[in-house]
Amino acid sequence: MSQLATSAPATRFAWWKPLLFIAVVVIGLWYVKWQPYYGKAFTAAETHSIGKSILANAADSPWRAALDYAMIYFLAVWKAAVLGVLLGSLVQVLIPRNWLLRLMGNSRFGSTLIGTGLGLPGMMCTCCAAPVAAGLRQSQVSSGAAMAFWLANPLLNPATLIFMGFVLGWHFAAIRLVAGLIMVLAIASLVQRSVPEHSVAAPVAMAAGNEQPFLTRWLGVMWRLFWNTIPLYIVAVLLLGAARVWLFPHAEGAVGNTLFWVMLMAIAGCLFVIPTAAEIPIVQTMMLAGMGLAPALALLVTLPAVSVPSLLMLHRAFPARALWIALIGVALSGMILGIFALWLT
Questions:
Q1: Where are the transmembrane segments (predicted)?
Q2: Pseudo-torsion of CA 199, 201, 206, 209, nearest 10°?
């Protein structure tokens, strides 16, 4: 009896952990996303703009372009990036793994739908959502659910859709919503069916971690997550900042409404990295400069969805095959949408 009595407190569930996680999610998203976007929606409605294109005034020198873009980009996303690492680590130590496995641990389509729904309130760009997706994979959430969560954050961002409606027109927002939903569910389902779960690296062992104090364990998890994602992220952003001189050579000129430009913009959109909703002023600026509707739609769905930095950030969370499926799936989706627009016009 004495042994049972002494072991009971050790097995008692710590309700403060999931409650703390929920509090961090709500407070963090309110500060970083929800409250700023609430005010930005009124600005978009009144001015039909949310700022100038991040591609504007690119330097001719690749090195200068890299530094300029990196400074602008990181000033725009650093709060969300910190929150992403924080949530990606806390989900591994505060949420019971059996909860996550029951919710998103199987290979059924329902897990993909749940991952999609959980991605909506995050409103993060693809890079800031990547650490959270990596944390979910470390907790052995299914590949389809984690992929859906990652893609839904930028593609189905409710705030971005509202900004898009006020700035570009509600028909653009409707197209983005329908195309984005199809992309998220189709690509995540394809990843789930094509990538065996055992091909993903096994998560960090939890048994030994449970014997450690919470703070020690959390800091260890957060350091591993940071080291596996952020250094590659910073290097890739610098390289793409330099490459924008070649990726978008006609950012201030006319881009014709042709199949060639649809394919080129779809591919460039998959490679480049932008902050949340930055695709709106980019497309707005380029359309005012003469870009056709078809390449504009291709950019509108590929620019936010994936990027080289975000794919690199997930290289330990997903096998290479899953990331290739995501990259090719997004590129083909942009091309198909652009070709459909060409056919209609």
A1: 13-32, 72-95, 115-136, 148-167, 173-191, 225-247, 259-278, 323-344
A2: 180
- The three-class DSSP label of residue 72 is helix
- Joined together, the tokens standing for residue 168 give 């570009």
Q: At what angle do helices 214-247 and 62-94 cross, to 10 degrees?
A: 150
Phi first, then psi, for residue 250 (nearest 5°) are -115, 30
Question: How far, CA to CA in Å, does 71 sit from each of 9, 33, 74, 173, 200?
Answer: 50, 20, 5, 29, 34
Burial class of residue 316 (count of CB atoms within 10 Å of its CB; 0-12, 13-18, 19+): middle
Both tokens of residue 279?
A: 């695709």
- Measured CA to CA, the distance from residue 291 to residue 252 in angstroms comes to 9
Give the three-class secondary structure for 140.
coil
Average pLDDT over residues 8-29: 83
Q: Would you mind telling me the total number of residues written for the chain in this entry?
A: 345
* Nearest Cα residue to 144 out of 180, 189, 181: 189
169-207 pLDDT, tens digit each: 999 999 999 999 999 999 999 999 988 765 444 444 444
Among candidate residues 305, 300, 298, 285, the one with its CA nearest the CA of residue 257:
298
pLDDT at 243: 75
Q: Are 299 and 269 in contact (CB under 8 A)?
A: yes
Give dist(CA 209, CA 206) in Å, integer: 5
Task: Report d(CA 305, CA 273) in Å as an integer.
Answer: 9
Q: Residue ranges of the alpha helices (H) in the chain?
A: 2-11, 16-29, 35-47, 62-94, 97-104, 109-119, 126-138, 143-155, 158-167, 170-194, 207-210, 214-247, 259-271, 279-288, 293-302, 308-313, 320-344
Neighbour tally for 219: CB within 10 Å: 14
Among residues 151, 97, 112, the alpha carbon closest in space to that of 314 is found at 151
Structure pTM?
0.90
Report how far residue 58's alpha carbon sits from residue 79's, in angstroms, rounded to the nearest whole number.
Answer: 25
Number of Cβ within 10 Å of residue 224's Cβ equals: 16
**CA proximity to 118, closest of 21, 20, 193:** 21
